[in-house]
Amino acid sequence: MVMIRLHHTQPPHPVRRELITLREAEADPRYGTSPLKRSLEEMLNYGYVLLDKPRGPNSHEIAERVKRFLGAERAGHGGTLDLERGRSRGIRSATDSFGKQY
Amino acid sequence: MGSSTKASAEVHGYPKEYVCVMRLHGRVSESELEWGLTQFIGEFYQTPPIRANVARRVRKRVLYEAEVSEIEGRDILLRLVVSGGTYVRKLCHDLGVLLGVGGHMLELRRTRIGPRTEKEAVRLFELQHALREFREKRDEQSLRRVIRPIEDLLEYLPRVVILDSAVDSICHGAPLARPGIAGIEPGFQRGDSIGIYTLKGEIVAVGIALKSAEEILRGEGLAVKTDRVFMARGTYPPSWGRGKSKAS
């Protein structure tokens, strides 16, 4: 049931255009990793979690909880996540930003 | 997490979609409500709420879409698409003031943020479950579904793909010059935020275009100023400052 629907403009949406090649080049397999082939350790450093925040606890509390989960992961995985140095900001912003619910 | 925290500036600026319940403090007809929302559609001005942790000056925001999907007495179910940095609670309050009866926001749920939607979101227990699978069974599969590559979040930025030999200098903060570019997505303007990618599709950094894509295609010299580096130094071999190295 829609009672009122108002449209202004579409929000800016990325228009993916074909890349124009300036120089033909091939990736050197010795360096770097394609985003979907990253090791778990790399994933933790170059990844995010799109979290459906439950009603109740605020984003900060959720972030603390996630940090605890992953903190244990860190301990079990050789110090990948550097939570103490404030790099956990991403976890917070991730929980803040996605599936937010008050 | 880790380096990916640097994407938060982009994420903050993305348009967002919300579903919210607003409570009016008095009777308002459907046509009055429509009139009220019409006043906000498009560009509107908003002062951040007192509690907000930002400078309290009037800011221009955009309401792209508004939809009233249910009215139950004085409670209204709204779907809103707004520009980044819009306070929906304040929007509800201001709408109430405009309608002359007052109003406030009861509930809010974010359903889309830039390129990502609610449908892709995982619940806390799914994250916990994925971690347990990994710890107990050494099974990475669920965890890989839950933790997504940061590149997914930066899809809104136009892309510039660079040569392997240019990667490490970008990681050290050097600007991107035309000879280091392998490919370019046309259409961006000077001053736009640009995603700088490797040939393998990894994000290296987010930069600011020093020229439009068309000018870069035509000309020489510096193309993109490196702004925020995601990739760790040394991921790719250095090929600068020491003449020709093996990698170049």
List its salient traits.
heterodimer; A: 102 residues; alpha+beta; 37% helix; flat; B: 248 residues; Alpha-Beta Plaits; Archaeosine Trna-guanine Transglycosylase, Chain: A, domain 4; 2 domains; six-stranded antiparallel β-sheet; six-stranded mixed β-sheet
Verbal overview:
The complex is a heterodimer of chains A (102) and B (248). Chain A has 102 residues and is α+β, with helices and mostly antiparallel strands. Chain A has helices at residues 40-45, 59-76, 83-87, 89-97, and strands at 4-7, 20-21, 47-49, 51-52. Chain A has four helices and four strands, in the order ββαββααα. In chain A, α2 packs across α4. The longest helix of chain A is centred in the middle third of the chain and has 18 residues, at 59-76. Chain A is flat and about 55 Å long. Chain B is 25% helix and 34% strand. Chain B has helices at 8-13, 30-40, 88-98, 124-137, 141-146, 164-171, 213-218, and strands at residues 16-24, 42-46, 59-72, 75-82, 103-113, 116-117, 122-123, 147-149, 159-162, 176-177, 181-184, 193-197, 203-209, 222-229. Chains A and B meet through β1, β2, α1, β3 and β4 of A and α1, α2, β3, β5 and β7 of B. β1 (4-7) of chain A pairs antiparallel with β3 of chain B, so a sheet runs across the interface.
Based on DSSP secondary structure assignment, what is the total number of beta strands of chain A?
Answer: 4
Tally of domains of chain B: 2
CATH names the topology of the largest domain in chain B as Alpha-Beta Plaits
Question: Could you tell me which chain pair has the largest interface and how many residues each side has?
Answer: A-B, 70 and 90 residues
Structural class assignment of chain B: alpha+beta
Give the integer mean of the pLDDT values of chain A. Answer: 68
Largest sheet of chain A: none
Q: Based on CA inertia axes, which overall geometry of chain A fits? A: flat
Amino- and carboxy-terminal Cα gap of chain B: 32 Å
Number of helices of chain A: 4
C-alpha Rg of chain B, in Å? 23 Å
User: How are the strands of the biggest sheet of chain B laid out side by side?
Assistant: 2-3-4-1-5-6
The helix content of chain B, as a percent range, equals 25-40%
Note poorly predicted spans of chain A. 74-102
The topology string of helices and strands of chain A comes to: EEHEEHHH
Oligomer: heterodimer
In the CATH hierarchy, what is the class of the largest domain in chain B?
Alpha Beta
Question: Count of helices of chain B?
Answer: 7
Q: Any idea what the shape of chain B is?
A: globular
